[in-house]
Amino acid sequence: MATVCITGSTGFIGQHLAQTLGSFTEHKLMLPVRDIQSCGTAGDITVFADLSDITEDYFAKNSCDVVIHLAARAHVTSEYLTDPLQEFRKVNCHLTLDLARKAAAAGVKRFIFLSSIGVNGISNLKPFKVTDKPAPVESYAVSKLEAEIGLLEVAKSTGMEFVIIRPPLVYGPKAPGNFGKLTALVKSGIPLPLGAVNNKRSMVSLGNLTNLITTCIDAPQAGNQTFLVSDDYDLSTTTLLRMMAKATGQSLLLLPVPVSLLKIAARVVGKQGMIDRLCGNLQIDIEHTKNTLNWRPIVTVQEAINQCFSKD
């Protein structure tokens, strides 16, 4: 049994992870939060005005073994910021490394960092592998890569193990971000011009990601490794929308508009990035993750999508 500190335990991923660890494992949980009112999870809850206020003593007095760092600046509209990258760096890089140094100084054995597949890039012609050279495009992913590089240096200088996990789009009940936007579109019942999109995209369900993180708490072979994660089953946007509609019981009209026309229209209205995500390929090779950890996704895509809407 380990003492595990989870940052971001009130977030979409953090709530599910804390509930899973609290209910199905014997790990002792440390949950630093900003607002105790938003924390409905089991564990030792401590309120901090900001995560930067977490001290070395906080980890030491609780005999913390593992830190799972989920807190991040994400799902933020950055177009109106003077320097978006700097704002992402403050939280995703500088705060992460400050926390890692404090954890190492307190004797924490392992630091698990939730990064992003965006570190590899935003699209591909062949599946991303963990050995590929990083090629982040967006500010969020750049800040995550800088944190990864810094964590390697902290690990080398202190002996604390790191584990880096790079997920693609994470989906589940009440998911934020792009999956939440797609959910709203499906439920609206309006015709969508996405019936001819034959791309392939990797995603990961909340249950599968949480299971991988849980595996990395104890697995000796996870130490000082970077893992890519997905459901190990890729979908086209058209197929995903049809699966979502079926799960909701919603009728859905998908118009077979050629992707070339969608891209032209997107350029005209300044939404090229959105269409690239909807129509482009982003596939992930998770063989290294499966082989190193002897791990497999525990939930199928169809099961996970059904779970997203089971309480609607």
Automatic annotation (TrEMBL):
It comes from the Bacteria. Residues 4-223 form the NAD-dependent epimerase/dehydratase domain. Transmembrane segments: none annotated. It comes from Rheinheimera tangshanensis. This is NAD-dependent epimerase/dehydratase family protein. Pfam families: Epimerase (PF01370).
